[in-house]
């Protein structure tokens, strides 16, 4: 193993509330399970899952400054007001520069774990969906999405995006452009016109 998982685990624990750390361990467990199902790199999946929320509870101005100085080619002014988006981008920067994790796939999995991206790798997809379906999650459709993900990763992700879109619509918001691109790409790959063909 290239990275000392237990050391990173202690660091993650020190940066998170108990609730956040419990969720994180759930994401690690789910990411490992999916990595075994889909023959992905288990170490990369576990490390990215462990560190995906490392910046979630850090000072918002600190996170904003990281993003302003490093990611404005990918983020909008609107994004800068949304910690749900920013903490992934800031997390990738923090993990590389403060923790010395330099694997590009791990970093991009952390970066895009909330909004997704086009042409996601297997590791990136696994961390993205593991965050949404770890066993601590209990929203209404999570069991259905989880079961589909165990059978077909792309379709599980599409169902999760559909669920997220409905939630955002209910609070008067739209999906992030990255998520829209990911949805369009996966629908094409799965030869579907709409997610309703799965459900």
Protein described:
The protein is mostly helical. The chain has helices at 5-15, 18-37, 42-51, 60-70, 83-99, 104-111, 122-133, 142-151, 153-170, 177-189. Helix 2 (18-37) packs across helix 7 and helix 5 runs antiparallel to helix 6 (104-111). The protein is globular, with a radius of gyration of 16 Å. The termini are far apart. GO terms for molecular function: bis(5'-nucleosyl)-tetraphosphatase (symmetrical) activity; metal ion binding; nucleotide binding.
How is the secondary structure organized here?
Layout: H1 5-15, H2 18-37, H3 42-51, H4 60-70, H5 83-99, H6 104-111, H7 122-133, H8 142-151, H9 153-170, H10 177-189
GO molecular function: bis(5'-nucleosyl)-tetraphosphatase (symmetrical) activity; metal ion binding; nucleotide binding
Protein name: bis(5'-nucleosyl)-tetraphosphatase (symmetrical)
EC number: 3.6.1.41
Supply the key terms.
Hypothetical protein af1432, 199 residues, bis(5'-nucleosyl)-tetraphosphatase (symmetrical), mainly alpha, HD_domain
Helix content: 55-70%
What percent of residues are in strands?
under 5%
> What is the level-2 CATH architecture name?
Orthogonal Bundle
Taking all Cα atoms into account, the compactness measure Rg is 16 Å
Number of helices: 10
Structural class: mainly alpha
What's this model, at a glance?
Helix 1 runs parallel beside helix 3 (42-51).
């Amino acid at each position: 193993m290239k990275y000392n998982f237990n050391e990173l685990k202690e660091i993650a624990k020190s940066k998170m509330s108990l609730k956040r750390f419990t969720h994180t361990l759930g994401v690690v467990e789910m990411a490992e399970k999916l990595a075994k199902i889909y023959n992905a790199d288990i170490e990369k999946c576990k490390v990215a899952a462990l560190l995906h929320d490392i910046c979630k509870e850090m000072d918002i101005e600190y996170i904003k400054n990281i993003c302003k100085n490093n990611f404005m080619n990918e983020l909008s002014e609107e994004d800068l007001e949304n910690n749900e988006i920013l903490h992934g981008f800031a997390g990738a920067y923090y993990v590389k520069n403060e923790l010395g994790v330099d694997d590009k796939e791990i970093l991009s999995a952390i970066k895009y774990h909330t909004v997704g991206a086009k042409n996601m790798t297997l590791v990136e997809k696994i961390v993205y969906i593991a965050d949404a379906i770890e066993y601590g999650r209990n929203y209404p459709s999570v069991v259905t999405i989880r079961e589909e993900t165990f059978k077909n990763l792309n379709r599980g992700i599409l169902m999760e995006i559909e669920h997220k879109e409905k939630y955002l619509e209910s609070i008067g918001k739209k999906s992030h452009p990255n998520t829209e691109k990911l949805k369009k790409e996966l629908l094409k790959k799965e030869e579907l016109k709409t997610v309703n063909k799965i459900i």
